[in-house]
Please model this.
Amino acid sequence: MMNKTTLRTLIIGGGVVLLGIILILCFTLLKPVVPTPPTVPESSMAAAQSKYTLREYQGKIALYGSDLTEPEEVFEIYTDTLPEMDILRLQEGITADSLEEAQAYLDDFDS
Model:
């Protein structure tokens, strides 16, 4: 049989352990929810990071700067003469980091 002091120590120790478990659960389960920022499609991110974009403009290929509002230059390469896959890529926008890279794409379309 246990004496009163030992029993009291076990009860207090058990209470402290139980309180610790409750606090851990509360902090784990009730942590604040941080909203995640909206995701941006990869094609939009690539366009934002690239300096130039080739797109279709009034049936022709056009070169856009980083703002994508008005073409910097429109070329006499008609999109209806291109393969379907190229037309789809131009509708989405083909990004280029330099004028040389954009020119390489244009040379491919013009051949």
